[in-house]
Fold this sequence. Notes:
By secondary structure, the protein is an alpha/beta fold.
Amino acid sequence: MNIAIAQSGGPTCAINASLVGVFKQGLLTKEIDAIFGSINGIEGIINDELLNLKSMIKTNEDMELLRQTPSTMLGSCRYKLPEMETNPEVYEKILHTLQLHRIEIFIYIGGNDSMDTVVKLSAYLDSVQSGINVIGVPKTIDNDLPVTDHTPGFGSAAKYVSATVQEIIRDSSVYSIPSVTIIEIMGRQAGWLTASTCVLRANGEEAPHLIYLPEAGFSAERFIEDVRKEMAKHKAVIVAVSEGVILPDADEFQSGAVDNFGHKYLSGIGKYLEHLVSEKIGCKVRSIELNVMQRCSSHICSKTDIDEAERIGRHALTAALEGNTGKMMYFRRVSEMPYAVTIEMTEAENVANKEKCFPREWISPDRNQVTDTAISYFLPLIQGEVNILMKNGLPVHFQRPLQMR
């Protein structure tokens, strides 16, 4: 048989590690001949744009380099599969491509929107008795997938964000005049990544002094009051705010555009709060939007994250070989001290188009901080360093050959 792998949604530091996990397990499975990569997610299957991964990934060195390379080597998409009843032609194209290349297993690496594709595609392939199995592998820096303890990609993003906030703390502390620095962090409507900055307290940092999450609700008046209180205690106040924090009159800083799954393109709350502090308090203030750097900063990735991402890719192929379809692999934390997880399966429909919010019980009563329980949750996910291959003082990345782009 042959298998195919595709990557979808936003890039992460760990999504290629999951691809490597599937690839390595495929090499060890004697029943598997060709291992195809689909260009730009499910679109590559629809348009019959496949690469033979064995012709690209030829050595152990190639696998290790790809494993530590950020972003999606195969490209990505935000394509929403239509309902089978409304557009059967799309499904017929997918089936044609899979059968043309004798593909009996399709592994889709992505987030909650990608699991929507796993659900719809596996149901269709079952309905036509194709014998083709579809398995989902989770990924997202947002950490907002239900069922799983955490998602591949999140640990590395949390490590980068927290290290960057620590550097901002050092930078902001050098001047004698009072200041406020507002750091806008990704996460859609889930505040996991913003909340993860609390791990700095484990190293004795007091900042971020204020942390605001979408799950806590938000008031501009209370925010200004919080900032004033912190300024009475600290010369340089550091605020971490999730991009998903909503204020009705902050819309002027957002485009209003949405993707194919109806998600708003969020950004601008940091700039809005900068203007608010300038107007209401009048001190030195700046906002910093970390933007896409949070997704692909592999130079400071978490070894735990990369290792787990590869492991879950391996398990996905094994699950498909055992006859499972329409499932997503997930992590179940079985021990806190020492940290340990098992890899299990759930129906992909339990994750598709759903969102896991940051626990309300981990948010402080004043709704402007997170509790120490959150620190215990986050710390294991950012542990370890990958020995990044360097050249001329810079990280080396795996790149698809030009003729295969």
